[in-house]
Amino acid sequence: MREQRPQHENSEGPDRWEAQLRKGALEMAALASLWEGRLYGLEIIRFLETNSRLVVAEGTVYPILSRLKSEGMLTSEWVEAEAGHPRKYYSLTEAGRERLRQMADAWVGFANGLSRLLEPVLEERGMAK
Amino acid sequence: MTVQLHVEDYLADLRASLGPVTLDEREEIVREIAAHIRDSAEEGASVEAVLARLGPARALAAQYRDGLLIRRASRSISPVLLLRAAARLATKGLSGIVVFFVGLFGYFIGGGLVLTALLKPIFPANTGLWFRDGHMIASGTQLYPPGPPAHEVLGMWYLPLHLIAGSLLLLATMFLIRHSLRLSQRWQQKLGRLRHANQAGA
């Protein structure tokens, strides 16, 4: 007797894949948001929402910033605002800048290759519509 | 007032759920999330909406714990920390489960070899490797060691040989878990690059 494989693995696949990709992309996006200068957590979230199509889950950003900091990619400092409360500002370290450069190079090369690969798929979808 | 209590409950839950994270890191995390809630509220968002966007305190804490535990363990030599990180990896997929059980087995057998090697000088007659008719019938420290015709073959060589074998197995287990933890981190980074590639292709 052959056992039937459960179907849910396939049906959940694309969503889970996209969720993992989104989560993974945040690392590069967070580094990129700090390229021009230091920002605090909420500013990073707003920057990403405004300047990229990434829908940012706020609860995901802070653990990523914490991880990048402990990997030496970022530094942080608490800054007392003139009016208001202290905020934790993040800045890129030299290692962080170098990592972002490498990520950007890899992304551009990979994205160009993938765009060519996906052209027929997208054209067919366009014709169907 | 109720809103303030709501925030305090959330932060208390977050602090409690960050258990394994060091005290300094824990306070830093709670302080930053408190600042985020205040900043968002100043922008005009309701506290309920801000907390909803942050997600449940326990889920938020789990994300911090995963990142910190796996990264710290990938540079550690502590079997407890490594096994805890491997257990966390085991919740993420089949390969993690394999790493956890191989790690558990490696530490158990490696630790056993080292322990019996150290027991050899204390219980020389009870510790050894016994053969009968060309087949190994017992090894380690035995409460009732096999009598003739079985015979012990290593003598005091048992100590260095098992000490070396046990230490090598413990080291191999440590490197296996650390390597797996680093691979899992690299995999996360690759997913990030793929995501951007996908956005550009779409």
Explain what this protein looks like in three dimensions.
The complex is a heterodimer of chains A (129) and B (202). In chain A, 66% of the residues lie in helices and 11% in strands. Chain A is mainly alpha-helical and 129 residues long. Chain A has one domain (12-128): Winged helix-like DNA-binding domain superfamily/Winged helix DNA-binding domain (Arc Repressor Mutant, subunit A, Orthogonal Bundle), CATH 1.10.10.10. Chain A has a three-stranded antiparallel beta sheet. The radius of gyration of chain A is 19 Å and the shape is elongated. With 202 residues, chain B is mostly helical. Chain B contains seven helices and three strands, in the order ααααααβββα. Chain B has a three-stranded antiparallel beta sheet. In chain B, helix 1 runs parallel beside helix 4 (57-73), helix 4 packs across helix 5 (79-90) and helix 6 runs antiparallel to helix 7 (158-201). The longest helix of chain B has 44 residues, at 158-201. Chain B starts with a helix and ends with a helix.
